[in-house]
Write a structure and sequence with these properties.
The complex is a heterodimer of chains A (193) and B (474). In chain A, 32% of the residues lie in helices and 18% in strands. With 193 residues, chain A is an alpha/beta fold. A seven-stranded mixed beta sheet of chain A has the order 4-3-2-1-5-6-7. The longest helix of chain A has 13 residues, at 123-135. The radius of gyration of chain A is 18 Å and the shape is globular. With 474 residues, chain B is α/β, with parallel strands linked by helices. Chain B folds into two domains: 13-168, Aconitase, domain 3, CATH 3.30.499; 296-472, Aconitase, domain 3, CATH 3.30.499. Chain B is 31% helix and 16% strand. Chain B has 16 helices and 19 strands. The chains are: A alpha/beta (193), B alpha/beta (474).
Chain lengths: 193, 474
């Protein structure tokens, strides 16, 4: 997993509730090998019309957001199917953090395991960020994982919760499986109970 | 002398199962949970790939069971019928990975094959008190047996394969209590759709749900599976129902159920699997069964659901700007006009199947509506049984003949048109009355328009060519 300490940048505003993983990564790409760039399939059917042409009104297609690394979303982001490919698509699309008031549970866990930092803020804080992004799409936020804060100068500052284990994994760029494999003796003891 | 009994803490069913499976706890509060059953489907190639990259083996292969369902053809039992080589490779990879890791595999030539959430209960693999995981979000289905069952991602599948454990943060608990008798034509699907309509698609995010009450107790095991199956559509991590005599009756003599003295020992344990009186839930929702009607979805979230006698909503009535926009978007995508009666919506496809409604009782209920009627002109109607067992039982009862003579296609088991990964898709702009679980944009194929409903309601739509109140046909 890639290290994550701080991240500064503009936000891609996706102000819709219940954005599901079928939209993020349509099921017809689920059989693609992980070696592929899943960013190519990110929001495939939302980005394109039925002729395959880019929809200019979709934010991800707009010049302002080229190279954007932070996604700003609304309630229940990533609900639906357990497909980890949805996280891969967002990650391969260049994103390293998603800010939302709430996430689908499985998506949230999948994100933590793939170097995509899911940040839960209060609804009112997320709404402030949306209005900030709306007023000036160039507005930047700074995510500081060690401090667990999201700051947009001069008026916005919020803190977020993350479990200390996941935080350490992000800060050091390590993953969970390696850690659990060091605990096999405890697992064996449980099995013998 | 009177002995003072230590007060035993009143625990919920969820807490009892959770506590039984904790291997250890981490400083940050996450628990390492031991997994009893790991169900595996043919989307698992990336997880096995993660294992292979680290040169790891499945640690306890006897606890894992695999079957292909997402990519299999429903027109025959030959993998070569899958045109797309990448998709064929996914189904083939499961067979190879199961063989390599000595995992029990129910292949396409095996009558036990089917949708993983349909076949595990048929085989007696899903049992009370177990912790069951699968790399598929509809794993809560097995909660119908009083198990803690939930879906996981590919990294977690690899983690379970390598360690037989999983790190989890304890969810909150929600009790959904339903009392009263169900009305005519109202099914388990209508119960769960009503719940989702009431609490919302994010209503249970962060919660494990327990369904209780007279209405739930009166459901059959197959109906309970339908309710638990769609817990994820309410955002729930898991959904469960305490086991009772029906659960035990179902499990008795199933191939993987305990036998002999093990059976007796299991019964003792299973009978402990209920929420103690006085146990606390973080949230309680009360509902009355009499208030539930046959339901259909009109939009692109399962929470966009209404009784069949309703009308397509007016965006202006929405409680917030975001919701108003969501309604406008959904109605544009779905090709619907505000104020239009739901029963005026014409359909092109009918899909009866999926892990939600592909079981024998579902097919019986649809066949009862279809009998002596015919599929409407221009409608393409399919029945895709949930498993080889469901298919052969239905054929023994003559249900296949009822469907076929009415103009339905009678197909082979698999996930099929629920999500179309095997190529069974609804064409762009076409409308499907579907017994599946998701009505998301593009779920059944790019541009597809899905209306979720019960098998009886889908059957009614098939014979009339439009969304129909099944109560008028029975």
């Amino acid at each position: 997993m890639e290290k994550f300490e701080t991240l500064r940048g503009v936000m891609l505003p996706l102000d819709k509730v219940n954005i599901d993983t079928d939209q993020i990564l349509p099921a017809r790409y689920l059989q693609k090998p992980r070696a592929n760039n899943f960013g190519d399939y990110l929001f495939k059917d939302v980005r394109h019309d039925d002729q395959g042409l880019l929809r200019p009104e979709f934010v991800l297609n707009q010049a302002t957001y080229v190279g954007v690394q932070i996604m700003l979303a609304n309630d229940n982001f990533g609900c639906g199917s357990s497909r980890e490919h949805a996280v891969w698509a967002i990650y391969d699309g260049g994103f390293r953090a998603v800010i939302a008031p709430s996430f689908g549970d499985i998506f949230f866990n999948n994100a933590l395991k793939n170097g995509l930092l899911p940040i839960r803020l209060a609804k009112s804080e997320v709404m402030s960020l949306f209005s900030l992004a709306q007023k000036n799409p160039e507005s930047q936020v700074v995510i500081d994982l060690a401090a667990q804060t999201v700051v947009a100068s001069p008026d916005f500052s919020a803190s977020f919760e993350i479990d200390q284990f996941s935080k350490q994994c992000f800060l050091e760029g390590i993953d969970e499986l390696g850690y659990t494999l060091s605990l096999l003796s405890q697992i064996e003891a449980f099995e013998k109970k | 002398m009177q002995q003072i009994q230590p007060t035993k803490q009143a625990l919920t069913l969820f807490e009892k199962i959770w506590n039984k499976h904790v291997v250890m706890e981490r400083d940050d509060g996450a628990s390492l949970l031991y997994v009893d059953r790991h169900l595996i489907q043919d989307g698992s190639a990336p997880a096995f790939e993660m294992l292979h990259q680290r040169q790891l083996k499945a640690r306890v292969p006897s606890r894992a069971f695999g079957t292909p369902d997402h990519y299999v053809p429903t027109i025959g039992r030959d993998l070569n019928a899958i045109q797309d080589p990448e998709k064929r490779a996914m189904a083939q990879a499961l067979e190879d990975d199961c063989e390599r890791h000595h995992i029990q595999y129910f292949g396409l030539q095996d009558s036990r094959q089917g949708i993983i959430h349909v076949i595990a209960p048929e085989q007696g693999l899903s049992q009370p008190g177990q912790l069951i995981v699968c790399g598929d979000s509809h794993t809560a289905t097995h909660g119908a047996f009083g198990a803690l069952a939930f879906g996981i991602g590919a990294s977690e599948v690899a983690h379970v394969l390598a360690t037989q454990t999983l790190w989890q943060r304890k969810p909150l608990t929600m009790r959904i209590n339903i009392e009263g008798p169900l009305g005519k034509g109202v099914t388990a699907k209508d119960i769960i759709l009503s719940i989702i309509g009431k609490i919302g698609a994010a209503g249970a995010v962060g919660y494990a749900i327990e369904y209780t009450g007279e209405t739930i107790r009166n459901l059959s095991m197959q109906e309970r599976m339908t309710v638990c199956n769609m817990s994820i559509e309410a955002g729930g991590r898991a959904g469960m129902i305490a086991p009772d005599e029906k659960t035990i009756e179902w499990l008795k003599d199933k191939p993987y159920a305990p036998k002999g003295v093990d059976w007796d020992a299991a019964l003792d344990q299973w009978r402990e699997m209920f929420s103690d009186s006085g146990s606390d839930y973080n949230q309680v929702v009360q509902m009355r069964a009499e208030e539930i009607s046959p339901m259909v979805t009109w939009g692109n979230s399962p929470e966009d659901v209404l009784p069949i006698d309703g009308i397509v909503p007016f965006p202006a009535d929405a409680p917030s700007a975001v919701k108003r926009q969501a309604i406008e978007n959904a109605e544009a995508y779905m090709g619907l006009t505000p104020g239009q009666k739901l029963t005026e919506i014409q359909i092109d496809h009918v899909f009866i199947g999926s892990c939600t409604n592909g079981r024998l009782e579902d097919l019986r209920s649809a066949a009862a509506v279809v009998k002596d009627r015919h599929v409407a002109e221009g409608v393409q109607a399919w029945v895709v049984p949930g498993s080889g067992w469901v298919k052969s039982q239905a054929e023994k009862e003559g249900l296949d003949q009822i469907f076929i003579s009415a103009g339905f296609q009678w197909r082979e088991p698999g996930c099929s048109m629920c999500l179309g990964t095997n190529g069974d898709q609804v064409q762009f702009g076409k409308r499907c009355a579907s017994t599946s679980n998701r009505n998301f944009v593009g779920r059944q194929g790019p541009g597809s328009r899905t209306h979720l409903m019960s098998p009886a309601m889908a059957a009614a739509a098939a014979v009339t060519g439009r969304l129909t109140d099944v109560r008028n046909l029975i």
